[in-house]
Amino acid sequence: MSLNTEMFSRERLAGYGPECLARAAALVVGAGALGQNVAQNLALAGVGEIRIVDKDEFEPHNRTRSPAYPLAEEVARFGLQKARAVASKLRPMMTNSNPLMRYADNWIEELGDGAFKNASVVLSCVDKPSARAYLSDQARFHSKPFIEGGFDGAEITLSTYPATDGEASVVTPCWRCSHQDIAGAFSCDFYAEEVERAGFVPAIQNAAATLAGLQCEAAITALHQRTAAFDARAFDLNIRTGRSLIVKLSTDPACPGIHRALDIPPVSLSTTADQTVADLLQELTEDLNDSPTIILRTPLVWSAACVACEQMSNVRQPAWAWEASPKCTNCGGPFPPNDLEAANSAIVYTQITNDSDSELLSLSCRQIGLPPLSIVEVAVRRGASTFFELAGSIDHLFNSGDAYERQ
Amino acid sequence: MNDNDIEVIFTHPRDPGTFTAYISPQCTGQQAIRGLIAGDENGPFIESAAPGRPYELAVKQSGIAITPNMTFAEAGVGNGEVVEVRQRGQGAN
């Protein structure tokens, strides 16, 4: 009997369907220690498309737990942006015959709904709780399986949430069900300081690699639609002591997260992200033959009082962007991070109509937090909300192919 | 302590310590965690959680998570049950 040397022969024996994985697109958010190990495993497993998102740059201390840390000569070609460098290093490892590696040097919130379009699974490899909350909400809204991981030294935790739609999206637990207070967790620098102050142990490669293996196995289970083996649960493991715990996650009756899904395909718009809000409203008015109200799923912070100069300061940013970097446009100084007084003084838009402030209507859709392929929720006087999709393509959000070389 | 209260043994997230409390079955996860932070005459059982890194509770025998607004009764916690206090790792970098 001759040995089967076909590339995926071992994976087939392990129950993997290479054809299924070849058709899959995995959204990997975060390209740090965990994200790199996750993306590497997915590349080797034969996943057809991998999307890597991260705005951070590599720092020297990352090297001890970064399988895709660029060598000196690669820094000149790829730069130090994590997403670009990791995508460039891992693309040759993809075992799929027609691999597609996309990357975006952005925060995931900047990419909006389009990042999730046609993704088969969402893997959270971020450390900020606010980013986890965003991913949890988006995965639920777009009916994607969500696989979340985090570590604290040798302690690792994996949590999995199935893709849901209809009533199941209401009653199935989400990450927010057990993580309700994410205030004070938006700014990267602030979060890093808090983590250090609290004495949390940073990543070690063995924890990152172990957790990445668990996350990828969960992703592969989800991609094969083995629903019985993929439910809402958490798995804690200490990789030194072997102590472990499996938790059946529960739905919180007052969960602040999104517990609904986009059950009907959105109506395609011709308005692009670079056209004005007025243009968008005009197309919606013509489509609906009614006066539309755009419901902003991410609130727009219009202005806020700076506690340093005590002036109202223009913000004009989606809430996540302002909370991540709350700079005062009057005095230049930052609002004190996560200052409740400043946050409470903010003028925030959650809806836009034809009667909204003319300056707001003159801004581009992108400026108010609607990048290409954004799902726009619109209410009219009669009936339920309707969902529309801004024009654009995934190539407006991600780089791929020849773009690996630094411009 | 009321007649309906149940004995619950909480385990510490990082050390072998336990904390025994008599609580109402209508107590929520959030209320229980507040009680563990307040502790007893010996001091707090657990420290206040850092922003974005909440404690979580799970019934040891059934594995069911008790979310912040869920009651111990809803989680099916019986007299003498052990409830694990967890704190998920949040690092990724």
Describe the structure.
The complex is a heterodimer of chains A (407) and B (93). Chain A is α/β, with parallel strands linked by helices and 407 residues long. Helix content of chain A is 29%, strand content 20%. Chain A has 2 domains: 9-261, 3-Layer(aba) Sandwich (Rossmann fold), CATH 3.40.50.720; 267-396, no CATH class. Chain A is globular, with a radius of gyration of 22 Å. By secondary structure, chain B is an alpha+beta fold. Chain A binds chain B through residues 30, 32-35, 56, 62, 124-130, 132, 149-153, 155-157, 159, 173, 177-185, 191, 194-195, 197-198, 200-203, 208, 234, 236, 245-255, and chain B through 50-54, 56, 58, 62-70, 75, 84, 86-93.
Q: Which structural class matches the secondary elements of chain B?
A: alpha+beta
Q: What is the CATH superfamily classification of the largest domain in chain A?
A: NAD(P)-binding Rossmann-like Domain
Please tell me the overall pLDDT of chain B.
94
Find the structural class of chain A using helix and strand composition: alpha/beta
Largest sheet entry of chain B: 5 strands, mixed
Count all strands of chain A and give the number.
15
CATH topology title of chain B: Ubiquitin-like (UB roll)
CA-CA gap between termini of chain B: 46 Å
How much helix is in the residues of chain A? 25-40%
Second rung of CATH, namely the architecture of chain B: Roll
Strand order of the largest sheet of chain B: 2-1-5-3-4
Provide the gyration radius of chain A in Å. Answer: 22 Å
> How many individual domains of chain B?
1
| SSE succession of chain A | HHEHEHHEHEHEEHHHEEEHEEHHEHEEE
Give the percentage of residues in beta strands of chain B: 25-35%
Separate helix tally of chain A: 14
Looking at the overall shape, the CATH architecture of the largest domain in chain A is 3-Layer(aba) Sandwich
